[in-house]
Specification:
Helix content is about 15%, strand content about 25%. It contains six helices and 24 strands. Strand 15 (about 305) and strand 16 form a beta hairpin. It starts with a strand and ends in an 8-residue tail after the last strand.
C-alpha cells in the first residue's frame, strides 16, 4: 500500500452489530496497522434540566442524543381539538416519527460552579439502560446563590464534546424575607403545539418573565393519545424525546429550574391507579421506571420546599398511592394514601411561612364536571375531599392544581379554601367546561390555554402574594393579590 486505505463498513441486516442511528464505522489501515477510531459526535438535543433545587441541593439531568435536531413535524393534517394527527402511521419505527431523536451511548459530565467552588460528577456512562439519560445530585450548596451548571457529553474519551450552560438560583434561606417569582403550567400534548418551529408559545412567554422556578403539575406527555399511542416502552420514551426536543422547552430550562409532578397520562393512561390494566405493554411499574428516567427523584415522590421566610411549597403525589376510582367511597378510599396525608398535615402545621402553597396534579376544590370521578372535587372521592378541604383551609393553604383544561380561580363555599387552575399549555388543548357556564365558587373562568404566575413581594415590609393568570402570549387575564389575613377561611 502506498498510503492509508479507508473502508466504510455498515452493519449487515440481521447482524448482532448495533450502531447508533445514522452512524458509520470507519477503519483506517496503514501498513497493516489499525489506528484509533475517529471521533463520533453526540448532542444534547433533549436539553438539560436543573431539577428539585432547594437551598442546599439540586439534581442535574440530561440525555445524550445521536442527532443535533429532532425529526421535523411532517404530519400537518390535524384535528381541531388537541390537534391529533390525521393519517399517522402508528407502526413506523420511532426513529422516523415526528419529533423523534435517537439516543447515543457515551459519557456525560456535570460541573457546578457559582459559590467560589467547582465540583463535578466525573464522566458518567450512559447507554440503552436508562434510555441514554444521566443525572447527578449536588449537595452542600449555598442558599440564594446563582449557579452555573455546565453539561458535557461525548461518545468516548478523545471524542468531540457537546456542551450546554444552564443557570439557576438556589432557594433563599428560610430566615430571609426574599421576593420570589415562579410559574406553573399543566397538560401538554406534543401535537397541541401552537408554534410549528418552537413548540409552545407559553414556554417562550414564561421565559420572558425570568421566573426563579417552574412547577409542572402533570400530564407532561400523553401516552394514550395518538401520534403515537404509547403501547410500548420505545413509544413511551419517544413521547419524552419529542416533548423535550421542542426548542421553546429546551431554551426555557436553560435558565429556569423545575419541579415536576406526575399525573395519569405520564404514567400509563387516563385515570390511572396502581391496579390499572396495562396499556399495551405499558404496566404501572414500567410507567414508573420511565418516569424515573426523566424525573430522577430521591426519596418520596411528595416533597416540600421553603423559599425564604414567607413562602413554602408542597408537591403532592396523586397516582402511586390511590384507590381505584370505582371503589365505594368511604374512610378507606384515598388519592394520597395515609402516609402522605399524615406527612402533609404534619408539615403544614409545622410551617411558619406566611403563605403555604400546595401543588396538586388534580383539583381539590374544582368544581369539576359531574361525569368525572378522578379527583377530590368529584363525588367519587367525597369523603377524603371533605377532609382535605377542611384541613387545608384550617392551615390557611392555597391550592394550585393541574389536570383541568381551563383556567380558573375558585373558592370553596364551605371552607373558604382558594384554588387556582393554571389551564393547559396551549389554546388547542383547552376544552371540557360547558361554554358560558359558571358556578358560585368561581371568581374567574376562562376556557383557554396559558399559565399561572406566583409572585411574592414585600411592599412596605408586608408579605403579598400575587397570582396572575396569563394567556399563551404572556398577557395577564386575571389577577388576585392576597395577604396572609385573606386566608382565614370561613
Amino acid at each position: 500500500m502506498n498510503g492509508p486505505c479507508r473502508i466504510r463498513l455498515r452493519p449487515l441486516v440481521g447482524s448482532p452489530c448495533r450502531l447508533p442511528a445514522g452512524a458509520a464505522l470507519w477503519l483506517t489501515l496503514a501498513a497493516g496497522v489499525p489506528t484509533d477510531l475517529p471521533a463520533q459526535s453526540v448532542h444534547l438535543t433533549n436539553g438539560v434540566k436543573a431539577m428539585d433545587p432547594s437551598a442546599r441541593e439540586v439534581t442535574a439531568w440530561t440525555r445524550l442524543c445521536a442527532a443535533p435536531k429532532p425529526n421535523a413535524v411532517v404530519h400537518v393534517r390535524q384535528e381541531k381539538v388537541f390537534r391529533h394527527p390525521v393519517g399517522f402511521d402508528e407502526s413506523m419505527p420511532v426513529e422516523r416519527m415526528d419529533g423523534g431523536v435517537a439516543g447515543a451511548a457515551g459519557q456525560v459530565r456535570f460541573t457546578l460552579t457559582g459559590d467560589g467552588r467547582s465540583r463535578n460528577s466525573g464522566w458518567l456512562a450512559v447507554d440503552t439502560v436508562g434510555d441514554f439519560t444521566a443525572h447527578h445530585p449536588f449537595g452542600g450548596l449555598r442558599p440564594g446563590t446563582r449557579y452555573r451548571l455546565l453539561t458535557e457529553g461525548r461518545a468516548h474519551a478523545g471524542a468531540p464534546i457537546a456542551r450546554q450552560d444552564t443557570r439557576f438560583h438556589t432557594a433563599p434561606d428560610s430566615t430571609t424575607a426574599a421576593d420570589v417569582h415562579l410559574t406553573t403550567s399543566t397538560c401538554q400534548y406534543f401535537w397541541s403545539f401552537d408554534d410549528s418551529l418552537q413548540g409552545f408559545r407559553t414556554y417562550r412567554s414564561m421565559a420572558a418573565l425570568q421566573p426563579d422556578l417552574f412547577v409542572q403539575t402533570g400530564d407532561y406527555v400523553y401516552y394514550d393519545k395518538p401520534g403515537p399511542m404509547a403501547t410500548t416502552a420505545a413509544k413511551a420514551r419517544h413521547k419524552w424525546h419529542a416533548m423535550d426536543g421542542w426548542p421553546s422547552i429546551r431554551t426555557f430550562y436553560a435558565s429556569t429550574p423545575v419541579y415536576m409532578l406526575k399525573d395519569d397520562h405520564d404514567l400509563i393512561a387516563d385515570d390511572a391507579h396502581p391496579g390499572s390494566k396495562p396499556f399495551g405493554d405499558i404496566t404501572v411499574d414500567l410507567g414508573l421506571r420511565i418516569w424515573q428516567e426523566n424525573v430522577p427523584l430521591r426519596g418520596k415522590p411528595y416533597r416540600t420546599l421553603r423559599l425564604g421566610s414567607d413562602l413554602q411549597l408542597w408537591f403532592l403525589e396523586g397516582r402511586e398511592f390511590r384507590s381505584p376510582n370505582d371503589m365505594p367511597d368511604g374512610a378507606d378510599k384515598s388519592i394520597w394514601g395515609e402516609a402522605q396525608k399524615a406527612w402533609l398535615e404534619q408539615t403544614l402545621s409545622a410551617s411558619t411561612a406566611a403563605f403555604k402553597v400546595v401543588f396538586s396534579p388534580t383539583p381539590i376544590v374544582g368544581p369539576d364536571r359531574a361525569s368525572k370521578k378522578d379527583n377530590h372535587a368529584n363525588a367519587a372521592f367525597r369523603h377524603e375531599g371533605d377532609w382535605a378541604r377542611k384541613m387545608l383551609a384550617s392551615q390557611r393553604a392555597i391550592i394550585v392544581n393541574g389536570d383541568r383544561h381551563w383556567q380558573y380561580v375558585s373558592r370553596d363555599r364551605a371552607t373558604g379554601l382558594w384554588e387556582f387552575g393554571s389551564g393547559p399549555v396551549s389554546d388547542h388543548h383547552a376544552q371540557g367546561w360547558p361554554p358560558g357556564e359558571t358556578r358560585p365558587e368561581h371568581r374567574f373562568l376562562r376556557v383557554a390555554g396559558g399559565f399561572l404566575g406566583l409572585g411574592l413581594t414585600h411592599p412596605e415590609g408586608q408579605a403579598l402574594l400575587t397570582l396572575t393568570h396569563y394567556d399563551v402570549d404572556g398577557r395577564p387575564t386575571h389577577v388576585e393579590a392576597l395577604r396572609p389575613e385573606d386566608l382565614t377561611g370561613r
